[in-house]
């Protein structure tokens, strides 16, 4: 008698729907039926609609690391998938990218996908399978992208923000265009009277950007004009997002909003002197499983910021050659 217990297909589907993306992709190798099930577009919609799998609802342990090797007059980039551990970021393997290029720019991960740009061509890529989809052909100096899952329509949407200079007004404007994966064409849904420059964050069914009116003036008064905007993927509405009352100081401050869109719920969680980090250029990557904050400093190294004592320490990358020509260009939670 066989010792293998066979579960009904609907039970298997319910179990697989709750797996993290990295384990889900491993399940594609179990059998051809499992591979067909996971590759089915209907499964993708069900997977994205399961609340337990929302990418920003829990601490992240997998990181995509873009490593740039600076050679004589040229660059060579490679994507790695790393696991966050107490010992550091442990390289687990090389991400698959089915593109004939050697250098690229990565931004805005969402639901296991990432946007890559090379030579004014923008692709949505799955680092685990290597599949890529061309979505735009224009310089990233004028384009920003965001992507995420619409909970009401159960569709995966891509938002393209196009910036341009308004002649006569001496200012910039940002136009929002939306298209749904699997469909043709895109539509303009609105605009903002300023220029977006930073990458966005997908959370709670919306995309979020921090914007600034005047990047040439980085004074304390100028930082008070900082704004946060959001784009609701369900209603496709653009709106301002409440920000905390902050001041430009020599310290790095991290604020947490405990109740979504409630300004009074902003709470200062961290405050650390920037000199402890060794640089003023700091990029938050993700919240670690132990509650600490992982930071990327100067596009060179990582720092773990302890939530209990607000102290920082280097977070090493294990399994990566420590060569002087290697630069950790960017890192994204996966």
From TrEMBL:
It holds the Pfam family FBA_3. Coiled coil: none annotated. It comes from the Eukaryota. Residues 1-50 form the F-box domain. Transmembrane segments: none annotated. InterPro entries: F-box-assoc_dom_typ3 (IPR013187), F-box-assoc_interact_dom (IPR017451), F-box-like_dom_sf (IPR036047), F-box_dom (IPR001810), SCF_F-box_component (IPR050796). This is F-box domain-containing protein. It comes from Kingdonia uniflora.
